[in-house]
Structures are given as C-alpha cells and as structure tokens.
Amino acid sequence: MKIGLIVEGDSDKEFFEKYFKPKLKRDILVSSPGKKGTCKILNRDKIHRDIKMLFAKGCQEVYILIDLDTQCDDGRKFNCIVELKEWYIEKISLKKHNNVYISVVSKEIEAWMLSAWQKSDNKSKQDFEKFFKAKKSLSELELLKKFIGSKKDIKAKNNEFLYYFLKKLELIENYN
Questions:
Q1: What whole-number distance in Å separates Cα of residue 32 and Cα of residue 23?
Q2: For 51-77, how does the pLDDT look when each residue is reduced to its tens digit (9 = 90+)?
Q3: What is this structure's pTM?
Q4: To 5 degrees, how large is the angle CA 144–CA 87–CA 124?
Q5: Where are the domains of the chain?
Q6: Helix (H) or strand (E) segment spanning residue 162
Q7: Cα–Cα distance measured from residue 29 to residue 27, given in angstroms and rounded to the nearest whole number
Q8: What gap in Å lies between CA 117 and CA 109, rounded to an integer?
Q9: Which letter does DSSP use for residue 153 in this model?
Q10: CB under 8 Å, gap of 24 or more: what pairs does 130-139 form?
Q11: Omega of the bond leading into 107 within 30 degrees of 0 (cis)
Q12: How far apart (Å, rounded) are the C-alpha atoms in residues 111 and 139?
C-alpha cells in the first residue's frame, strides 16, 4: 500500500526521503507544502492540494505530520497533542476527508533523529544541537546531514511519538 506524507518543511521531507524511504518496505511519497524554504502546513488550500495530489498518485492513506511546536498563526502555543490536533483539523477543514490522518511530533522531528542515542520525548532542535556539541546554531538540514552521516538507526523505544507513528504504519517490527 502506498502512503503519502505531508511534512512541515524541506528538512523533514529530506529526512523521510533520505532516511526512511530506503529502509521501508512500503512505498511512500513525501510532500512539503510551499516553496523551498517555507512552511505552509497551516495553509488550508495548499494542504488540500497536496492531499489530492498524493491520492491522485496512488496513495491509499495520507499522514500529515505537524510538530507540537508548530507556530500557530494566532500566536497560540500548545502543550497538549489532542488540543493541537483538534485545532489543526478545524483550521484545515479535514473532517470531510477519509484516509487522512494527523500525527503530532513532540516537539520536533529532530527528536526522532535524537532517539538513535537517547530518550528523546519532548526534545527539540536545540537539544539535538547540544548533543552534537554544535558551537553555533545549525539549520535543520545541517542537523539532518549530521544524523545521516552518523549511520545510526533511530530507536522507536526511545520516543513514544515515533513509536506510535511507526506502529500506526505497521512498521514497528523494523525498529527496536
């Protein structure tokens, strides 16, 4: 079964294409709304266009991954995954879509990469930078390159949201 993923930005897209795609037995297509370097995960029209495109390309299910620290356009911050999901579903008007699921990453996708070494629930990009002892702030793409260069595998048991996502996609047996 082909699965579609809609992720927030370029680095998230590269993470799935360069790290996950080669390791999965399932076919995935990854989309990031907006032009290179922009995040349009909150743009209803762009999300609906990407959903239609992924279904047109043969995806049976589409997963939209949003970070717990997604910057809401009304300035609100969420600490509760359920509240963020409900707010996002209403904002993007997803109630009428079958086979479209929202997955929340806590706090950021970089936490999934950090799970290769340690427990990473509620970790952020800054925690990942600290792990690599970066002397300056690194971009998400630079962090991704460091992770892929490490040749380490993520460990689902080190991040409950990663574990949930892999289990939902029936991929958990591939990750310890």
A1: 20
A2: 999 999 999 999 999 888 776 666 677
A3: 0.87
A4: 25
A5: 3-106+159-174
A6: helix 160-168
A7: 7
A8: 15
A9: P
A10: 139/11
A11: yes
A12: 14
